[in-house]
Amino acid sequence: MKSQENEPPYGEESTEGLSRRGFLQGMGGVGVWAGMAGLAGGDTPPTDADGKVIPGFEKPGDEPQAGTKWQPLSDRRIKVGIAGYGLCRFGAAFGYQQHPNVEVVAATDLDPGRCAALAKAVGAKKTYPSCEEMIKDREIEAVFIATDAPSHARLAIMALQHGKHVCSAVPAVFGFEAGDEAQKLHEAVRASGMTYMMNETSTFHAALYAKRKQHQAGALGRILYSEGEYWHDGVGTLAGYNPKNGRIDQHGWRRGLPPMWYPTHATAYYVSVTGGRLTEVSALGSESLYPVFKEEDNPYRNRFGTEIAMFKTSEGGISRMGVSWDMKDAHGEQGRVYGEKPHDKTIAGERPPLPPGMSAGGHGGSHGHLTNSFIESILLDRRPIVDVGDALNMTMAGIVAHQSALKGGEWLKIPQFG
């Protein structure tokens, strides 16, 4: 259940590698995953209103490959600015401060106290009162946008237009204007020539990554059926950044959140495995049990606490993706992939090694791998593991799925971005 939760006032919070939360159980052509997690970079893990550790931020396990096989690609240190230290303190949770090819030069959060805490956590000497101001700093080469979900696309576009490489928390775009944002973000990436990557944690779940390597080697053949699930009870009641008062409270962006507006932990289980696309969708929703979804002032006019979608894929297969904020005994990011051919146990599927001293971190050991992948994509000038096309397909598939659910399951086409 972990989730790449975006946190607020700039505190929140694929193709090539992945991470994991569970186990791969495969026989024949089947992979079963459950992606659990760990905390990366933080003294005490973030908790919800009941004092429980937010899924994905449990104590991390050891990364057996860290430092053992890693080979430096360059002596260059990329100057990075980090935005966001909200509910989940994501700005410090992905290990930029631990990477030998990174110098964290600046930090920002809309809240002065969180801004100072973020700067201390990542070792940044400069701070800014907003991400917009930080983006104007010409010294900064790349930014990590770990802010509230509604701000991701706007800040990413601005950073790209200022010649910065961008790593963004999920989702890539958000809300009622997601379609317009997607077009603008796609155009900004192409016009800038800079690297854009979305930090989808499921992409680096160990089991998903193993299936990705199987698919790349041609072992699975065409994927006939796949599933992705993101179960996280109570998300609609979690605190989030509230632009009306500049605080993280119960009336922030998560209140009444449509499940399929935060779909990427599920949709990655097809897109990040195959590099293919979800093309059409029919979805249904069920009303949430939580009172906030029944309020007249629900900010999204949404009553669904669970949404389940059936997708057609670009290779003629079928995918079932589900997101739920209601189910009490279900949690985590998990999925299954079934191909024409059986899983080949002789194909190596391990995640790549991490630099010495760098933690794999939370969300199934995905944090460190995502950061390392982003930095290497800049150093090598190569396509990142979750590029803008992957990011927009993972995200827009959910946006359109919610539209379908509102129409009682009507089949709708998903816009495609190269």
List key phrases describing it:
418 residues, alpha/beta, Dihydrodipicolinate Reductase, domain 2, 10 helices, 15 strands, disordered N terminus
How does this model look, in words?
By secondary structure, this protein is α/β, with parallel strands linked by helices. The protein has a domain at 30-55 and 204-351 and 387-413: 2-Layer Sandwich (Dihydrodipicolinate Reductase, domain 2), CATH 3.30.360. Helix content is 25%, strand content 20%. The chain has 10 helices and 15 strands. The strands form 3 sheets. The chain has a 7-stranded mixed beta sheet with strand order 1-14-8-13-12-11-15, with helices on one face. Strands 4-3-2-5-6-7 form a 6-stranded parallel beta sheet, with helices on both faces. Helix 2 (112-122) links the parallel strand 3 and strand 4. The two termini are 30 Å apart. The model is unreliable at 1-42 (pLDDT under 50).
Element string (H = helix, E = strand): EEHEHEHEHEHEHEEEHEEEEHHHE
Mean pLDDT: 87
Helix coverage percent = 10-25%
- Gross morphology is globular
SS summary, helix count: 10
The largest sheet has its strands arranged as: 1-14-8-13-12-11-15
Largest sheet: 7 strands, mixed
Strand percentage, roughly?
15-25%
Low-confidence stretches: 1-42
